[in-house]
Every structure is written in structure tokens, then in C-alpha cells.
Amino acid sequence: MSTVKLLEDHELSPQANAVFEDIRATRQTDYVNNFWRSLAHDPVTLKRTWESLKSVMGPGSLSPKMKEMIYIAVSVAHGCDYCIHSHTASARGKGMTEEEYHELLAIVGMAAETNRLATALGIPVDAIYKV
Amino acid sequence: MSTVKLLEDHELSPQANAVFEDIRATRQTDYVNNFWRSLAHDPVTLKRTWESLKSVMGPGSLSPKMKEMIYIAVSVAHGCDYCIHSHTASARGKGMTEEEYHELLAIVGMAAETNRLATALGIPVDAIYKV
Amino acid sequence: MSTVKLLEDHELSPQANAVFEDIRATRQTDYVNNFWRSLAHDPVTLKRTWESLKSVMGPGSLSPKMKEMIYIAVSVAHGCDYCIHSHTASARGKGMTEEEYHELLAIVGMAAETNRLATALGIPVDAIYKV
Amino acid sequence: MSTVKLLEDHELSPQANAVFEDIRATRQTDYVNNFWRSLAHDPVTLKRTWESLKSVMGPGSLSPKMKEMIYIAVSVAHGCDYCIHSHTASARGKGMTEEEYHELLAIVGMAAETNRLATALGIPVDAIYKV
Amino acid sequence: MSTVKLLEDHELSPQANAVFEDIRATRQTDYVNNFWRSLAHDPVTLKRTWESLKSVMGPGSLSPKMKEMIYIAVSVAHGCDYCIHSHTASARGKGMTEEEYHELLAIVGMAAETNRLATALGIPVDAIYKV
Amino acid sequence: MSTVKLLEDHELSPQANAVFEDIRATRQTDYVNNFWRSLAHDPVTLKRTWESLKSVMGPGSLSPKMKEMIYIAVSVAHGCDYCIHSHTASARGKGMTEEEYHELLAIVGMAAETNRLATALGIPVDAIYKV
Fold first, then answer.
1. CA neighbor of E57 nearest in space, from E24, E25, E87, E32
2. pLDDT, tens digit, for every residue of F68-115?
């Protein structure tokens, strides 16, 4: 259940439509997923978010697959169901194997466990970790 | 400020000491960081946690560096200061460049932003993401 | 899927019914939403929670609309789907425009991003922010 | 304890310096806070984050004070100590009274409580909240 | 909507099947819940997670009922819908009364509220709490 | 670093002082911890929070020790350093043994791990858990 209507192509403002065209061109697919159809009510945020995402997830030192896997990790820790599903699909689309996926999940779970233990115990950061 | 005393080597139970010896042998360093010195009050949890961590972070499909970077991402999302510092240091020790580190942070921040937007809007998961 | 049955009016204890009557009188509507129908199994918590909410969300320095918008922001950050929907509806009922709603979401997303960046970097609080 | 050095003015790259100049001009103060001095290691993220923040927190339907108060609410829910202090200072600088501040805190606390109750009970969203 | 298929008994690898047999023997029921059917794609994580859970939730100083109630509290704070439902059912199965359940929820809600207030105010830890 | 001054006894308003007197009488100690000294700037929230806490943590089905342990669990999951330290001290004061404390931590860590695994996998809730 969403708090705004998902906008269909014919309901887009010209500014939103321009962003959708760039999404299509960048991803080389006609499909625009629901995230953008919700954000399209606010063309300024739509444009800013898409351009940030395109920059952050674009070519760099880390591979596209690794970027998506980090995105999944954060989305799990924040409990965002939509993001978990969309980025798990993207990571698979960019070559994440099932073996890599299960390693990712094991790390996420392990980190959650030690994060909570360290927080509970109020452990002081070791001096050797100091920059 | 911690909720238990950090145990020094001469205060360890034999079971805890055995785990410390394995930590030293595995990491090839005499240094045992504060996380384990806090957990050492409970040798059963110490042993189970160390063995799980050794397994999860050990050789696999993902590189040691990538595993540490995923660990950082989760630790940031959980706000665990200790874990952020220890795993950032580990990732650098395993070859994470500053360029990779900044890409990681940009992804973590971006994911946090879109996670909250998607949650706020209650966006339905697209059918194409269905397994 | 809920962990307790939603109570209908004829299933309420006298103490729970008294709270429902106050909810109806305060909000000037016969409709009592599911949150209270779940809490009604525990009339003490029902009464305490309703009275706290009535006090906190009642007249004060901040407008009713702004109070609901802050409530949405917190609910998003906690990932509470029920609360997001009920308070988004309330905020709209108290005059939140779609423009204000989209500004709210943009702030929530932006804050999430910079929150995680600041936490990741372990940035020390500037002395000028000291009270 | 931070994971990167805070950069001083003479250590900035030209791109980072240009962002600092815009921060100073926009805020009409020579002081640039630690958040930007940490981010300055990555001029691309620095520039993107500052421009997004300037846009999101700039003139709009909501007052600058209200925007800062929403920012505080999110920062509290995410447990970002740096952000809590910097945005509480900003909100006061933009006119938040102590009375308004205490109302804000009361709402944040109340929302946290009902968020967790609603999540624990798995309460279904009422049909009347449907868009 | 899940990211992996739930495995049925005839789809299990021999290693996963061995874990399922231990789950059945330990719990004295033929029913194996969806959590394990999802994890079964990765027999190493399945085995490690089950053995850790069996150890942590097994006989100790705290009663099985209390252990499940603590598990519920954590699951609510992390917003894990699956875990909330499965552990609420387990706690009831181990004797949690409805009165105890409602006390648990009241504590979880109250803690959430004071957690956020203390974080917002940046309250320094009292010296008397020092170990 | 806090966002408000901790109030000393001679700085309290009469309404805040009355709450402090009740805290002292209820706890049978002259010591009033920093949490209340921060909240005392807002006597209405101070009084409401104290009375709610007194009710929730007062006599009931669960022992005072168990109530404090649940409080710790929630505080850890929310990353509230102040609350972790104050409630760990309280739990010890109410008889929590070190063995019980370590069992608590192990459960909190384990729950964090399985919470994130279940969320990542999007596991559907089993029909048998339905109320």
C-alpha cells in the first residue's frame, strides 16, 4: 500500500518525463520501475535522486556488481523491502552468483550480530585503529 | 565506557586463552583487539563468535577486501562505532584504496536516502523482481 | 498479519471502552483505527498510550500539521509501515499539502544520507555546537 | 575518533575549495563545520552532497526552522550524534524556541513508542488510509 | 515476496537434509518453518545458524520463555516481521501468558521512547554506572 | 556532549522538583540520574515519562530483573549508549548475574543475525504462526 499513486507515462510532467527518458537511455530498457513512478510526483527530487544514483552507481573503482551488493547490505540493515528486492534483482542482473549472494547474506548477518555485541558491551575503540 | 572489564591475557580462562591463540595464529599477529577481550568473559560466546567470523570472513567467492567493505556498510547502518573503526582499519589493511572507500561511503549514503524514500512512499515491489 | 485479534466494539472491556469513547470525542469521529483495536487487549497500556498521545499531539507551540509531519519522519526512519500510513493520512487531514509532503520526504532522505556519512566517518562534533 | 583526517583549508583540492567557498557564501559565515572537512577528501561526493543539501534545505513551503526540526527528528531516529548536535544548533540558530524543541522531543519519543508497538503487533493498515 | 525459493524436503542437499533432521529431532515436530527452507540454499550458513541458535536458545540460566521474549524485543526493534511472528508464536508455545506479552510490549515501547529521548539530548553517562 | 544543560537540584522548577522527589521516594535513594536532569527542562514530559516508566517497570507478571533485561535488549538494538549503561547497571542492581547477562547478549546478537537474514530473504510468515 503506497502513500501516493504510481504515475503512468501519460501522467508525467514534462520534467519527470525527461528523467524517465534518461533512465531508459542509461539502462537500455523501456521498463521504469515503481520507485521512479512514485517519486515522479516531485520532479525536482526525482531528477536529483536519479542523477545522484546514476553518478554513485556509475563507473568507478568498484564493479557494478559489488556496488549493488553493498546496496543490498545497507537496504537489509534499514529493513527496506522494496530496495532489497530491486537491488537483489539488479545484482543478479549484473552477474552476482548465488554463491556470492549467500556469502553476502552471511556477512550481513554476522555483522549484525557483532555490531550489537560491541554496542552492548560499550567496547572502546583500540588505539591502533586511530587514523 | 564499557559494561565489562577488558580482560588481559593473564586473566583469561583456559578456554578463552585457546580462542585467543587461534585468533593470533589465524591473523598472524600477537595483537588481540578489544572486541575479543570483552567477549572473553563468556568463553562459549567467544568461541562461537570467533569461529563463525573466521568461517564467514575466510576464503570464498568474494575477496577479503570486499567482505570487509560489506561489513563496514552494515556497521554504519547499525551505527556501531567500534565496528566501523575496526573494519575500516581491516579493509585498509586488506587493500581498500581511499578511492574505493569513498565510493563505498557514497553508496551507503545513497542507499540510506533511497531506502527511506521507498519506505516513506510504501512503494509496491515490481512484479519483475519476483523470483 | 497481526499477533493479536483486532477487537470490535462489543468485545471491549469497560476500561477499554472508556478510552474508545474518549478517542471518539476528542477526534470527533466514530471511527477508531486498528492501532487502538490492537492495544485494547491491554487497557492499562491503551489508556496510558492514548493519554500520552493526546497530550503530545495536542495544542502547543507547533501546529497540528507540523506535529504530524515530524511523526511521519520518525516513523519512516523506524520503518513502521502502519505508522507511516496512519500519520501520512492524518497530516493530509490536518492540511499538509502535496508540496509540503514532498519537501518532508526530501528532508528525510537527505538526513538519512548525511546521517550515515557522518557516522561512517566518525566525525567529531564541532566545539561551536557545544551548549 | 574519525576514519579520515579533517582537512584544513590549505589542504583542500581546488574542487573542494570551490565547494567550501560556496558554503561560506551561502551561509554567510567563514566557519565551515567538520562534516564538510571530512567529506572534502572526495570532492565529487562533497559537491553532490552540498548541492543536494542546499537545494533540500533551501527556500520552499516549509520554513527553514521546521526543516531543521525534521532533520533533528530523523537524526535522532538514526542515532547520529554528529547530526543531532549540528542540526539542533542550526534549528536554534533559525529560531527554534526551547518550548518548540521540547515539543519536538516529546513527539520523537512518542512516535518511537507507538512505532514499536504497531510493529510488534503487526497491525494491518486501515482501509481508510488507502490512497 | 522472497528473494529465493522456499525449498521443499525433496529439494534439499544431503547436508541441508541433515540439518533439517536435527531441527525435527530437537524440536520434536515434523514441521520445519520457512526460515530454514530459505536458508537451505546455503547448507554451510544453514548449519552454522542452526547450531548457534540451538546453543543460544538451549538450556541455561534464563528460562526458554524468557529467551523467546528477549528475542521478540530485539526483533521488534529491528523491524523484522518474520521474526516477530515466529518468536511470538514460540514464546506463547513456551508458556508466555497474554499478560506477560502485554508487559513485554509496554517495556519495548517505553524503552524505544526513552532511548530516543536520551539520544536526542546527548545525555552523558553517569559516573556511577561505570564498571 | 549534550544539547541541554543538566539541571542541578537548585535549578529545578517546582513541578520538576516534585517529580524528583517522587523518583527519590520510589527508588529509595537520593541519587537522581542524568536522564531526569536533562528532561527536567520540560516538566510536562518529565512527569509523563517518569509516571509511564514507573508504571511499566513497576510490579507485574515479569520480575524487575527480567524487565530490565528486556530494556537492555531494546536499548542495544536502538544503539542508545546512555540507556545501555543505565539499564545494565539497574539490571545488575536487581540481581542479574553475569551468567544471565552473557546469555542476554548472546540472544541479542543471535536475534540481530537472524533478523537480518530473514529480512534479506523476504521470507513469508508461515501460516501456522497466524493468530
1. E87
2. 999 999 999 999 999 999 999 999 999 999 999 999 999 999 999 999
Q: Which chains are within 8 Å of E by 3+ CB pairs?
A: A, B, C, D, F
Residue D1: pLDDT band (50, 70, 90) is confident
Maximum Cα–Cα distance across chain D: 59
Closest-CA residue of chain F to C51: F48
User: A131 and D4 in contact by Cβ < 8 A?
Assistant: yes
pLDDT, tens only, C78-106: 999 999 999 999 999 999 999 999 999 99
At B83, which CATH number?
Answer: 1.20.1290.10
Residue ranges in chain B modelled with pLDDT below 70: none
F115 CA: distance to closest CA in chain B (Å): 13
Interface touch E131/B4, C-beta < 8 Å: yes
Q: C48 is in which domain, residue-wise?
A: 1-58
Residue E24: inside a domain: yes
- CB contact (8 A) between residue F109 and residue B80: no
Distance of CA A93 to the CA centre of its chain: 14
Q: Do C31 and D128 touch (CB under 8 A)?
A: yes
Q: What would the pLDDT profile of C10-51 be if each residue is shown by its tens digit?
A: 999 999 999 999 999 999 999 999 999 999 999 999 999 999
Domain membership of residue C128 (yes or no) is no
Contact list in C for residue B80 (CB cut-off 8 A) is none
| Burial class (CB within 10 angstroms; exposed 0-12, middle 13-18, buried 19+) of D8 | exposed
Q: Which of B2, B44, B125 sits opposite E1 (nearest CB)?
A: B125
What interface predicted TM-score (ipTM) does this complex get? 0.97
Q: Do F83 and E114 touch (CB under 8 A)?
A: yes
Q: Which residue of B has its CA nearest to E4?
A: B131
Q: Which three cell numbers stand for residue C32?
A: 477508531
Residue E58 class from Cβ within 10 Å (0-12 exposed, 13-18 middle, 19+ buried)? Answer: exposed
> Is the same domain home to A47 and A31?
yes
Which chain C residue is nearest to residue B122, measuring alpha carbons?
A: C81
D96 phi/psi in degrees, rounded to 5: -65, 125
Res. E119: pLDDT tops 90: yes
pTM across the whole model = 0.98
